[in-house]
Amino acid sequence: MTTPDILALGEPLIEMVRREGPADGPATYTSGVGGDALNALVAAARQGAKTGLVSALGDDPFGHHVRRFCESEGIDTSALVTTSVGPTGVSFIHPDPGARHFTYARRGSAASQYRPSDVPLQTIAQARALHVTGVSQAISPSMRDAVQAAAETARANGTLVSYDLNLRLKLWPLEMARACIQAFLPLADIVLPSDDEAERLLGTDDPGTILDHFARHGAQVIVLKRGPKGVIVRTAETDRAIPAPKVDAIDSSGAGDSFAGAFLAHFLETGDALQAASLAVRVAALTVTGHGATAAIPRREDLLPA
To answer: Which pLDDT tens digit goes with each residue over 230-261?
Structure first.
């Protein structure tokens, strides 16, 4: 198989989505597949991009299911390691239309034990874009080092580095997150912060100040994700606010990830960050109309009109 255009390095997860039961009975859960890097790849693949996942799965039924899911989505799994040293991680999602509510069961997972020596450096050097996240950095020191090695290889070989902060303070303390994110920014060509996590990191909710902060490290494009307000895109030429379509939101899980993946797919296709963001906000809007991170991510032909 040819090298995918977009590679993502991160932890794939089985997701268990809470569904409310009867008033006098327990809630039930429906299963799915997610994880922020994989969510982004699903969105990119459904927009027509050639994608591949770089990570590790446990040699267990969950891991085998994730691999089959990737293959069904057309996501290349040749750089996906199956190992017996740890299980496949699980996340429990509590649906909320306006916030993220996760509980993780991922300690000691296969992906958390991923190391720099596992990184397929040649494949990354041949790809057009590498997508990594703050979650990938947070799950373990060895995965953090793997992200660093992958990004350094990408930059050395002209592969775009896309970085979604995805700040999850259940995974690491704020000061450690702030230091690691700050150190990584010079490697990123595209930076994708959300307004709430940027406020925690920087102590300000002013969009201009946030964009200035991330721009000074040399990124070509910064996209500030603002939930139902849409996004603000900064390029060398302009700042542009792009509103999100109005939808009946059910579950915000995966919305930012689906934006990231769709943005990369369309940016690589067109070279136009504003056009890519305009299409990606429509992908993210439809993502929140279903339960779970990937189930409602739309295909290209199903996008809402602009």
So the answer is: 999 999 999 999 999 999 988 888 899 999 99
Q: 6: which 2 tokens? A: 């977009």
Provide the H-helix boundaries in the chain: 36-46, 61-72, 121-126, 134-138, 141-156, 174-184, 195-202, 207-215, 255-270, 273-287
Query: Which helix (H) or strand (E) element contains residue 56?
Result: strand 51-58
**How is the chain split among helix, strand and coil, in percent rounded to 5?**
40, 20, 35
DSSP state of 185: G
CA torsion angle 240 181 142 72 (round to 10): -10
Angle in degrees, CA 187, 191, 194, rounded to 5: 140
Three-class secondary structure of residue 197 per DSSP: helix
